Amino acid sequence: MEPCNLKPGDVVQLNEQNEPCWIGCFLMVTEPKSFGCQGFVAIPREKTEPAGMAFLRPTWEQIERVDFRILRDTPEYDIIACALLQPAREVDNEEAS
Q1: Which pTM was predicted?
Q2: pLDDT (tens digit, 9 = 90+) per residue, 59-83?
Q3: How buried is residue 39: exposed, middle or buried, by Cβ count under 10 Å (0-12/13-18/19+)?
Q4: Which member of 3, 15, 33, 97 has the lowest number of beta carbons within 10 Å of its beta carbon?
């Protein structure tokens, strides 16, 4: 992603330049940085426990912007996030076993 004007509350998606476990995760920006941003990814736990948070500091090369759009221009409709997700790479059977 090209450097841009991120602000706290923006959502970015971690791309293939990250460790495999983070690829495709959404990150809530808490602080813009000159190198990219700082933010967190929600980590699910048991159903009765609140989600955990993993704080990360990705560079511009490791993130993609998530765009927002309004489904209908009326107050009763929420804003939804739209992301360009990369398809998962197929793993050879030898690697999976």
Answers
A1: 0.68
A2: 999 999 887 655 556 555 554 444 4
A3: buried
A4: 97
